[in-house]
Amino acid sequence: MRQLVPVLSAHWDEKDSFTIEAYTRHGGYKAAQKALAMDPDAVIQLVKDSGLRGRGGAGFPTGMKWGFIPQGDNKAHYLVVNADESEPGTCKDMPLLMANPHVLIEGCIIACHAIRAKYAFIYIRGEVTHIVRRVNQAIEDAYKAGHLGNGVEIVLHVGAGAYICGEETALLDSLEGFRGQPRLRPPFPAIAGLYAMPTVVNNVESIASVPAIILNGAQWYQSMGTEKSKGTTLYSLSGHVKNPGQFEAPLGITLRELLELAGGIRDGHRLKFWTPGGSSTPIFTDAHLDIPLDYEGVAAAGSMLGTKALQIFDETTSIVRAVLRWTEFYKHESCGKCTPCREGTWWLVQILRDLDAGVGTEEDLNKLLDICDNIAGRSFCALADGAVAPIISSLQYFRQEYLDQLANKGPLFDPMDSTLFASSKAGA
Amino acid sequence: MSTTEIVDMITVVIDGFEVSVPKGTLIIRAAEQLGIQIPRFCDHPLLDPVGACRQCLVDIEINGHAFAKPQASCTIPVEPGMIVKTQLTSVVADKAQKGVMELLLINHPLDCPVCDKGGECPLQNQAMSNGQGQTRFEGTKRTFEKPVNISSQVLLDRERCILCARCTRFSDQIASDPFITLNERGALQQVGIYEKVPFKSYFSGNSVQICPVGALTGASYRFRARPFDLVSTPSACEHCASGCDMRTDVRRGKTLRRLAGDDPTVNEEWNCDKGRWAFKYITAIDRLTHPLVRNDAGVLVEASWPEALAAAAKGLKENTSAVLVGGRATYEDAYGYSKFARVALGTNDIDFRSRLSSDEEREFLAAHVVGSSTTYRDIDRADHVLLVGFEPEEESPIVFLRLNKQFRKRALKVTAVASKLSIGVDKLKGEFVKVAPGQEAAAIAKAALTSQSIILVGERASESAGALTAIAALADSTGAKIAWIPRRAGERGALEAGAIGNLLPGGRPVADAAARVDIAALWGTSTLPSSNGRSSDEIIAAVHSGDIAALLVGGVDPLDGNNSAAALAALERAFVVCLEIAPSEVTMRANVVLPVAAITEKSGSFLNWEGRARSFDAAVDESLNRSDLRILSMIAQEMGAALNLGTVRAAAKEIASLGPWDGARVSMKAVSAAKAPALKADQFILNSWRRLLDLGTLQKGEENLAGTARQTIAVISPSRAQVMGVTDGDLLKISTAQGSVTLAALVEDIHDDAVWAPRNSRGSQLLVNLGVGHGAVVTVVKL
User: Is the domain of A273 the same as that of A342?
Assistant: First the structure.
């Protein structure tokens, strides 16, 4: 049985964990000091050696991304931190910034040094006012303490509430003041990103992981995790578990282990399905409890590690209703640039609404899958791939439930049963 | 110097066929080389790739590595070792395309039976060629209120829109007029304008033309016709000297629509809104249909052709006559007037410049312009373009588009010697060399050009004494090329045809005996008049002095000239034979009026500013109207002179047989600049130009078009405005001894000594209202 290994979350339980005093008390900003004394290329090499991979979902090696920035090109370079966490189920970056914003700031200082950037932009989603305030305060404190302003400036930018702005090139457009829509690649951000300058776009957790790596070394980081997925990471459990929240553990832990750490499924219920990495990763079922939750393990089982947002659904949940809700989200968030996503999500919602109401035939399920086939891999960016993932995977595991619902000519589940206050229902 | 460009070629295999294309070619375009049509909507060869519609998906493999998913062939350039499978050879690509097509149609209203685009619609056509025939969509379509007027001439139907962003990309990337943009998101994404700012671009019609569905329609064509009822004829634009290739669509003898044609060397695939939408004058109800002869009572009455021709011939033969031909005549017609003057009237008193002009200009044209060939391609290669007396966006819009293309592509350096910074030059981020009106010459002399530079000279350069002298000297000292860009479509052709007093056809100087022999031999005449003829101003003066008693006038607006009052009086005094399409200030005063064919009713050609022939056939076969040329031949015959130009073809053949002039050019006498006048506190020097959309005769009746004209304003500088206590919107009265105009003020970047107003816009017809156009001292007071 593996245990929690809190690195990022080591001091989150302290009352003042978010303050510069608490951060400094636990050795904060020492990593920056150490990194600034190193050759930038050595910092990149250290991060490469650590095996740190992007925590935003795709798992691209962070050090390699930094290494793509052309050096000696006499151009401004930029670091952009993607804090536009908006995927249903994903809830790791916001708690991290709430509990310890300084680790991100220190990570930014180190990353800027490595890629020879003077400016770091933190792009944060617009809805999270409390976190914007907290990060703002932390930036202010870091300036006062002299950590910022001596070669590195941080600009906090608040988004206007669009899921697509989590896509790195849409984020850059939004940051430049345009409507957020993904850009045509090439050129990639490493060549022409923000204001057409070489730019690294990293997830909050990726950058926040850097200070500990600098302090403790690549070897230390390498010692945790699995063969190709190194280090620790935040697993976010939500839904029908007794103790939902952030669970930091080495990569490769299984849901069975995490569920035990979280006290298990709520009493009297059993696991029905779950997402390994947010709503855009194909769902898993109780057959996948022992899949190692690292990049390779999850991929081998047909899904993606994504943001490690483990949404847990027990047997009271209607798969059709859950998929409908997710699809409605994607329809609402489709940016409209390309046909398959814009039109496809519009159509999928209408079909799923019918299916949820028990209207349709088995032929509609085939049609649904065929439309998904015409959307997945045909769109401009990955948003649409994410949109069809729950549909395709739910039909893979729960086709019979869809059929039963149709035979029943109506919903099989009472949505009340899946609520957390279900037990208080009269007569239960 | 060799101009061969070395191009790296890349060989790829598409659907099993090898094709070699230049490096950087997009797959979709390489496929076209093989005749393989990949369906597409957002793709446009002149716009940056966007990859939005996803209709052009193909399977790609490079050196054995296959892409996991089909890729948009409109965004990916070819690479060595690439193997492409389109819908023709890949089941996956075919299904992907059919899938995208089905998705495109789920929210499309499918109102093809009532849609203007039906019958020529890329969506309709490609739904047939690459769609699956039947939709599986049983849901609710997205609906919008429709249509929305995004300008007075462009309407938007958001339900039909497939969001390919061609219109918004055109406006941004080609015209630099980002008045329209995409708003909202998801299926509710839509094209829109900024709040309260309509789509006021001079080039908005192109976005209608490249719309692949019926989402954007022009107010003047909307619901007028079905494409399959139209007969299309390639034509050339008569509105300016840019020389746009056009297509004229006619149904049952009536022109219903004109579109930009595709000529990569000239207008690419674009034109301006005037060229597209100003053609009602052709079918106006007041078109002249019968000859008119002034009777003994002094009243113009309808007459038969023989009667009218006899009257015209008699009047011209019995009097000393001169010819005024407007700058709108075709090359062949201008040649007819030129030959008529010499052969039938025995005079060199002919001038096509029915506008402000000077003797300096006439010598400049003979010395530096006639027979020369600076081209659009030269703009593409220039290191620096100097604009003098020329505002490209207003006066030759396709030249503006070409400058803008090179500016966007390679930051082409543009310098404008002018009094006021124009909107167009501002868009080109041009260097603005600010001079007082009339003081251009000194600034021109200082321009730092090289032998790779071009000087674009507008006809307004003639309005500043010494400017053309300075340009000639600058070109001489730097090796920069000169291009003269008049406003009117026919001026360059008229110059080449010798419709000017110092030149015979083909740039042959009148004063050169060998040149006269050439022409006399061609025309079969024994002699030609040997002294330089009068200019248009001199002709008018000669009428007043009694030296000239008859005028042959074709396509002239007397209110465009240096002294419109004198011109009108001269027309009253002389015996006037007028060839016109519609009643005008000239026909009112003429003794004989002969109706002629409008542009769509005849064949012919224009020489654009490059000197490039832009020929066209009659778009309307049914017209009974004859070209000027034919009528001139008939008058000549009546006078006993042989013009032998019965048809346009005959004229073209005769012109072609002439060959270039290889003798000496006319040399130019230097003219020095006028001294800057001393100004009192309320005095300014007038600066003006004509806007693209204004009160021009050929825009008559085009109310939708007029709705997008720029606001009529008077511009003064911030420092003068401060002294006068003027802010934007205050009323300014500009006056001369002749009259005044009152306009809203706009405080902008302009020389302190200058006040600018549009020359011929609603409320500001300076030549009529003030009697001056440029360079004159006027009084400006705040009301």
Answer: no
